[in-house]
Amino acid sequence: MPHDKTPQTSQSDSQIKPTYPSQETPIEVIDMHTGGEPLRIVTSGYPDIPGDDILAKRRYARDHLDHLRRFLMFEPRGHYDMYGAILVEPSLPEADLAVLFIHNEGYSTMCGHAILALGRYAIDYGLVKAVAPITTVNIECPCGLVRAEVEVSDGKTGKVRFSSVPSFMFASDLSLQLADGTNFKTDIGYGGAFYAILDAGQFDIAITPENVSHLTRLSEEICQAVNDSVTLSHPDHDDLAFLYGAILTDGGDAYGASPTRNICVFAKNQVDRSPTGSGVSARLAIQHAKGLITPGQVRVFESVIGSSFEGSVEATTSFGPHPAIIASVKGKAHYSGTASFWHDADDAVGRGFIVG
């Protein structure tokens, strides 16, 4: 996961001059956060994204509109760890809305913290009619359909629980080696995205804010080791068969009363401030596969800053050749504000940059 300190230029960008929003036609956004992890929801001003299905739309956005991802995610409007959501026309008939996820590297396939935020947003802004005490919001993601259940009381939205796509353990207890010769073991789990998931205790390091820089560098090395040694495959789509990041845990995988803490480092060394919804789904799949949790048992998963999600195994299933689970993840998102973004024609720096 190398650093990219300058705005990228894709082949399509070099062939077609990118168009940026003006003051007369800005991109409007609503900002939220879930457990401290930001979500910038594009509400208007983004170009139409064609495609017969969500993965086709994802490819189109990547190939033709990537300058707008950088415009919204990078400085001076965003920052290295910004995250966003672009609402697109659903291709699944049962979906209430469809979403493309964006970050410092590109386009995620699944994002649990965004689902928890979009569940509230969809009801609060009239995309789905509120029904007390629970309103269901079906959200089409690149990984598939995710069902969110939003608490509604006295017309106000509260916590959200989502049932994810089938999650599974892809590999268990792989013995690998860092570039410096350090040996480690890791599992690989899928919760809408693939993660290397392992105990940070192997490296004698705790999951604390003070250790984030060390944990980030370590995660980068772990991902490199996995990518050098493991070929991932997805039962349905090659577009989904890539390692999204690493999740370093406190080793607390067995069911118990104490919360378990982890840090997720994804994309280009982007650090999730939340416990990571897709990561919690993948962790639950691994825990279930190893006999460490049973359906109905609820666990608390903490992030590196101490924010938490509740997670449980809702049901068991299969996904291609893999025994799988349907993970249930619960949390609450909050609103941060609104903004209008545009670009002055003579502002080269304002097209987006990152430092780090």
Descriptive account of the structure:
By secondary structure, the chain is α+β, with helices and mostly antiparallel strands. It has 2 domains: 11-163 and 335-351, Diaminopimelate Epimerase, Chain A, domain 1; 167-331, Diaminopimelate Epimerase, Chain A, domain 1. Helices cover 19% and strands 37% of the residues. The chain has 6 helices and 18 strands. An 8-stranded mixed β-barrel has the order 9-10-11-12-13-15-16-17. The two termini are 13 Å apart.
Label this structure with key terms.
single chain; 356 residues; alpha+beta; Diaminopimelate Epimerase, Chain A, domain 1; 2 domains; eight-stranded mixed beta barrel; 18 strands; globular
Write the layout of secondary structure elements.
Elements lengths: L10 H5 L11 E8 L2 E8 L9 H11 L1 H8 L10 E5 L8 E6 L4 E2 L3 H13 L9 E8 L2 E10 L2 E8 L3 E11 L5 E8 L3 E6 L12 H18 L13 E7 L10 E7 L3 E2 L5 H13 L8 E5 L5 E12 L2 E10 L1 E9 L15
Parallel strand pairs: 2-3, 4-6, 11-12, 13-15
Antiparallel strand pairs: 1-2, 1-18, 3-4, 4-5, 6-7, 7-8, 8-17, 9-10, 9-17, 10-11, 12-13, 13-14, 15-16, 16-17
